[in-house]
Amino acid sequence: MDNKEAIIQATMTLIEEKGEHLEEITVRDICKNAGVGLGLVNYHFGSKEKLIEMCVERIINGIVERFQNMREEAKALSSFEKLEYLGNMTLDFLFEHSAVSRISVLTDMQTPKANDNTHRTYAAYLPLVAACRPDWDETTVKRKTFCLITIMQQTFLRYETISKMLDIDLSQRDNRRAFHTQILHDVLEV
Fold first, then answer.
1. Other CB atoms closer than 10 Å to residue 86's CB: what's the count?
2. 3-18 vs 27-34: helix axis angle to the nearest 10?
3. In sequence order, what are the residues at sequence separation of 6 or more whose Cβ sits closer than 8 angstroms to the Cβ of residue 74?
């Protein structure tokens, strides 16, 4: 393994260990765990923050790939149930890994890329939305899928405000799932 990949792997391990306390990760810890000199983080990545963003993207990419593979696991479910299941998995991940998720969502919003995590999530949802509403044209399916992903991101990023506004505690899994199901009905018009 080269130095750059060793730094990435060490950082990803520290992200998983620190959980919601990413601010505790230091360049010194990263380099010690990677077995490299202190200057290599800045040399390869420019800053600790850019390194963490890149590692978060890699972590989330793995999760999105698992979401895409979930379709096989849920073959017996209806299209709506599959979409509901995927949405619940997505929201649960966002809330259970809020520090990593916040970095991922905000990075995608600030510096969108062609194949970022938001786009990959959109791509995973698109066929499910189309299957739920085969009567919609392609443009409508794309627009509604975009709306659904945006609502989920906002539900996560602004859950305290939305919880107060709608008088529902979205930090609670059951409330979040009920809210998500209602959003699906609203967006899909079913």
1. 20
2. 120
3. 81, 82, 85, 86
Q: From first to last of the 190 residues of the chain, give the pLDDT tens digit.
A: 798 999 999 998 888 888 767 788 999 999 999 999 989 999 999 999 889 888 888 887 777 677 666 656 677 889 999 899 889 988 998 898 888 888 889 989 998 988 888 998 898 899 999 999 999 999 999 999 999 999 999 999 999 999 999 999 999 999 999 999 999 999 999 9
H-run or E-run covering 97 = none
Within 74-172, where are the H helices?
79-96, 98-110, 117-132, 138-157, 159-166
**Gyration radius (Cα) of the chain, Å:** 19
**Ranges in the chain annotated CATH 1.10.10:** 1-46
Of 85, 83, 120, the C-alpha closest to 105 is 120
Whether 187 and 144 have beta carbons less than 8 Å apart is answered as yes
pTM (2 d.p.): 0.77
Question: Domain 1-46: which CATH class?
Answer: mainly alpha
How wide is the angle at C-alpha 94 spanned by C-alphas 93 and 98, nearest 5°? Answer: 115
| Domain 56-188 in CATH 1.20.272 | no
Contact 149, 184 (CB under 8 A): no
